[in-house]
Amino acid sequence: MGYSSTNIHFDYDGQYAKSGDDYEWIPSDGRLYGISFKTSSLDEITYSCLKERICKKKRIDPCLKRMNLSYIPLVVEPKRQSYILDDEDVYVYLTSVDKEGRRSILHVEVIEEMEQQSVVEKESSYGGNYSELASGLLEVEAGEGGVDSEGDVDNSMGVRPSSYYVELPRVAKEKPVVKEWEDGLGLQLFQEFESKEAVKDIIDRASQENCFGISICNSDRGRYVVKCRGADEGCKWSVRATKIDKSEAFSIRTYRNMHSCSRVTSSTGKKRKVTPRCVAAIVHKDYPGLYETPTAKILVGLVQRKLGVEVSYTTCLRGKKQAVADIRGDPEKGYIILPAYLYMLEKVNPDTKTSLVVDKNNRFRYLFVALGASIEGFEYMRKVITVDATFLKTVEGGCLIIATAQDPNLHHYPIAFAVVDGEKNESWKWFFTLLKTVIPDSTELVFVSDRNPSLIKAVGEVYPMSKHGYCIWHLSHNVKAHVNQGRDEVALQFRKVVCLYSEHEFKKQYDDFRERYPSCARYLDKSVEVKRWAKCHFPGARYNIDTSNCAESLNALFEKARRMSLLPMLDTVIDKMSEWFNRHRKDAAEGPSSRKLVPLVENKLHKRTPKGSKLSVTVLNSFQLEYSVIGEDGKTYSVDLQQKTCSCRKFDIDKYPCRHAIRAIIKCLEHDKPLQLSDMYDFISNYYFITTWAKAYVEKSEYINVSYVFSYVS
């Protein structure tokens, strides 16, 4: 990028006089001064920057001078002055040149000069000035990496000295009106803030809470300088922050924390104004991290009580929205550091799989994350994966996809999640293709989901060996839509039929359902294969997982996260997963050493055993461990302990003993105990043992947050 010099000539102090129809400038001493800016663009020269350079040239304090900048345009007839009030006016002045590249002389009109001692401009032997000596306070400031008011190079000795103070006798002591008081800011020299806005926020809020007014001396891209509104009374309070080189951060370079003014005058001379940013700061302090905050109407009263300042409903509404935006994060910044975030995620969590896809214009399309801990732990889970997608509530839109298993104690066990542009054929196939890299295809694998056509197609193409069942909760809502009344009862009756274990019992109950609700039965016969939804007809090991509610409840759990921009949402999801892993690992490690099963199954067997032990049992084949048990309903059930089956089908599907099997096991262990069997635990699937449960939560999951990644990138 090229740089060019812009030269400006100005005369200092004078006034305009009318001569006929024209105005002309009458200088006070006739001297001209010159300043030069070296920039890549004219719009880098701001109004405050221009005033700062003029004050530096004249060696005056900008906080002690009030001046107007103006010029007489070359092309205006009759000639009259044009005042410079803001950055746009500066740009107009700089670009108003004739054919030879000449521009008008800049006129600096001093409209008010505050009273100060005559020794201000005379430097002392130590390099300061006598006005600072007279104040009784000397502050020497230096730092590294900072941009001073004119871009001057900092102390070159390589040492950053601390601010120090020298107490000297005053030239003339005046009796203070009020005792000096602190501003409540608590800043420190060289303290850094992430942006200029952050500096402004903390100063604005302190001025409101502690009831003092501020005046802005300079505010541009490289500095923010404020003084007390009571400076006219001699109050020396001030803050100066400058931009750190090659960064957006600002550093405190000058800070005088004591006020000598009276709040009566400094806070009442002008109406104190509360900004939306200030309202947002109050919301963050009182409701940290929350989206659901009080209404703007309530915030009006809250701000009044906190700051003692009247504020409008509109300002509070804007402040409330700003607070929400702060939590959601900056989407643009998030997308920039996303690759670094994923890199660090893989580095901190071994075996983690991530994938990022962008389009030809380098815009985000897809994101996939599977933590290494989840991948390794899935080996010890039942091989049933529920999948669901939900829409993101952001401007960018898109969908959050979650694939999760269920641990034997009915806890969520997220395996992978993704952010895609919608529930389309391409996005679903992309997700399952990535999932297959961490969970391979297998005849043992089962997927449970709603009946989204794109999802069904993707599972069939990517996982041809797996079994795919439909969520009965979603299906029941589709079924009840085919009746005009009693819809909730229809859905309930349908779910009861679906959950039957025995094919004989299912046929009987489903025939009855068909007679009562023929339109619903016709819909099912036409639209859905019975093996996709009926538990007793499902060809794979689905266990007790009949719905995709596990994945859906995760989506509900992340309701607030879905309103965030991408990186804060990822942070929330991964943080929650890390929390679950640590909690369930602790649960598995606690408890008596004699306990072998997860609490859920242990309690179920504990309740079944008293009733099961009283059933009548007959040995059919002691060698093959086959028994006949008469149930509480008077029906006879065949139990095969060697194959771990029962004609009621609960033992077969759930993989732990039903009441009939419990009675057969008791009989077996009492009289026909084989050498390889010792207790009831020998007839239960390994998935329900605490040792297996603990292995699923390996000590491998750690959390990496956005702020850490951002510091890494910086």
Automatic annotation (TrEMBL):
GO molecular function, one term: zinc ion binding
Leader sequence segment: none
SWIM-type domain span: 637-669
UniProt superkingdom: Eukaryota
UniProt entry keywords in alphabetical sequence: Metal-binding, Zinc, Zinc-finger
Any Pfam family matching the protein: Plant_all_beta
PROSITE patterns assigned to the protein according to its UniProt record, in alphabetical order: ZF_SWIM (PS50966)
Protein name listed in UniProt: Protein FAR1-RELATED SEQUENCE 5-like
Organism: Raphanus sativus
